[in-house]
Fold this sequence. Notes:
It is a single chain. The protein is mainly alpha-helical. It contains ten helices and two strands, in the order ααααββαααααα. Helix 9 (156-176) runs antiparallel to helix 10 (186-201).
Amino acid sequence: MARLREAQKEMTRQLLLDAGLNLFASKGYTATTVDDIASTAGTTRVTFYAYFPSKADLMKALISERLNAALHRVSSTEHGTTESALVAVVEDGSREQLRTWLESSARRWDSIRPYTTSAFEAAAVDPEIRTSLDTWLDEATADIKAGLDRADRFPASTRHFRSVLAITELDHVARHWTPGHWGVEQEEMLDVLAESWAGLIGRP
């Protein structure tokens, strides 16, 4: 019986997360209310608050749980979360390996875009979400710097800045690019992105 109750609680929590994400993507974070989320999930605002103290906390859970899982990011004692494949490919530094990783990343863009788009909208109006999103981006930046540190590539004083530029570039393209957008199709887009990454963080 206890297991059944726990399963039901987890199912309700996931329904609330699903409802929040769908509404944030369709209506926008600002326009979505707690009542909207509870109603879409088939429950009440009282139940919502039993799981999440606020709408912002639900958004933070979408980032820390759902988005990290989609990107294969796992807990790290060094900097919150990490994606070992990204660290390894940056350490390798070849244009071919960077291009392969970026291509793999691009396959996930459609599925992660509702999370990232909603998170950036939320961050614009909620300092709590801004902090959470900045932390998440800092963790991805730290992965690239870790790869550069392992390879001992480029002056140490420039590695963090190079990592910031690479992640900022990737995040912007991942959130905004669609086939034909900016006049490029996927293969050409990936070639240019890989070329840029190779110059920023790849082998000289």
